[in-house]
Amino acid sequence: xxxxxxxxxxxxEAHLLAIGERLVSEGSFHDTPxxxxxxxxxxxxxxxxxxxxxxxxxxxxxxxxxxxxSLERWSxxxxxxxxxxxxxxxxxxxxxxxxWEDRPLVLSAAVELFSRVPTIREQWLQAIVDAREPLADLxxxxxxxxENRDPARARDLAESLIxxxxxxxYVATFQGAGRNDYQALTKTIxxxxxxxxxxxxxx
Length: 203
Description:
α4 (55-78) packs antiparallel against α5 and α4 runs parallel beside α7. This protein has helices at residues 10-26, 34-40, 45-51, 55-78, 85-102, 104-113, 118-142, 151-174, 179-197. The chain is mostly helical. Helix content is 74%, strand content 0%. The protein has 2 domains: 10-51, Arc Repressor Mutant, subunit A, CATH 1.10.10; 56-197, Tetracycline Repressor, domain 2, CATH 1.10.357.
């Protein structure tokens, strides 16, 4: 690892991200000047800009890391053996719910800045695409509905289900949801996904 002049110090970067996440959780991120964040991290204001072009870029990196962890959790479920399709879907939804439970204010801030900060918008949209593909494959593999076996339809359905999930959890977070609320919403979303994916026989 380079450690000469101009080299990126990943410990310092991690410290900035930790400060940013704490400020988000305290509700003071937007009101805290860059100079204060930099000073707490042992940097000058220009030093902050070596790592991030703005506070929004710092937040965008927090969002990117959170979404990446969520996708890793998805892959652990989707790439594993499937014994019970409904239980598999529940596990997928639960892994995403854990993301909102662990980082509710970071993700809520990202939703609120979606239209204003290009980097956050691009990361969020890419995460949707990255999550859509394995979910679409799961739909094609597990569905009982012939029309859902069409890959293009499965991708559209998967994207719609993901957006439904994200908006539902954003609203729940905005309303001050707690652990029990997230768990109840996870069950509701799972039931909606199972029905839309066509995993149950028609009665």
